[in-house]
């Protein structure tokens, strides 16, 4: 395993006696050269999990191991210099993640030069090589981020992350801010780069169909908890957790005629708050199959089939 996450928690203090459980006791592992898709509703903790893994948030408790080596709970400058070479992140909004005062050449060369990977005289050719890999021309080197479209800016963000030749890349909803046609181009680009460079990806998104297309395995989060994890096709076509079933049932049908005829039954109840959450399963207030034990005891994650794990009292 290239990455192991063990009982990871990230809580935020909101005030006296108020604690937001953004990531709560999450455990999973990522194999080398695989793509793990992480899905869930907005606000479920996906992005917080990704940012905690790369050191942008300090862990509350738990452990993250990269290639068997524990990562620090709180990164200092030396830790960032040491681990950012091997773990990189592609952010959701390329407009805010790229420095508007730097040219593309400066943006792409900053990391490799800091880590001593590129010599000064190599920068133009190396930047041109990476721009070519992500489908942009070498003439883009002297331009600024605002001169590009959203899809082109995201390609620059991808090139910046991969220029360090990392082993693991956390993709934090890299396509959600893009048009549908551009989304497919970016996903195809990531798949091509993953194959050619042997990358390992954690792909965070809320589009289940897109995640199923690109990922080898899928993990589902609900209010800070990991409720189901398994092979992408198996989880998509045979979901076991009631929340995963509801999430997939609400996924739009690609056939317009079937979509018009489809009847989606909304989940009852209100979404629970991650602030000082009640005991028991987080999904209990909305679950159509809720039992008495669900409201008082937190479900344990169990393997119900090879590689398929579910945290639910039904199993």
SSE order and pairing:
Layout: E1 3-15, E2 18-30, E3 35-39, H1 46-53, E4 61-66, E5 69-70, H2 77-83, E6 87-90, H3 94-97, H4 104-114, H5 123-133, H6 150-162, E7 168-172, H7 180-197, E8 200-204, H8 208-214, E9 217-222, E10 225-231, H9 232-237, H10 242-249, H11 256-261, E11 301-305, E12 308-311
Parallel strand pairs: 3-8, 3-9, 6-7, 7-8
Antiparallel strand pairs: 1-2, 1-4, 4-5, 9-10, 10-12, 11-12
Helix pairs in contact: 4-5, 4-6, 6-7
Task: Write up what this structure looks like.
The strands form two sheets. The protein has an eight-stranded mixed β-sheet, sandwiched between helices. It has a four-stranded antiparallel β-sheet with strand order 2-1-4-5. By secondary structure, the protein is α/β, with parallel strands linked by helices. The protein has eleven helices and twelve strands. The radius of gyration is 21 Å and the shape is globular. Helix 4 (104-114) packs across helix 5 (123-133). 37% of the residues are buried.
In brief, what are we looking at here?
The chain has 315 residues and is an alpha/beta fold. Helices cover 31% and strands 24% of the residues.
**Separation, N- and C-terminal Cα atoms:** 27 Å
Strand order of the largest sheet: 6-7-8-3-9-10-12-11
Low-confidence stretches: none
Could you give the order of the helices and strands?
A: EEEHEEHEHHHHEHEHEEHHHEE
Mass-distribution shape = globular
Tally the beta strands.
Answer: 12
Radius of gyration: 21 Å
Mean pLDDT: 90
Largest sheet geometry? 8 strands, mixed
Strand content: 15-25%
The count of helical stretches stands at 11
Structural class: alpha/beta
Fraction of residues in helices? Answer: 25-40%
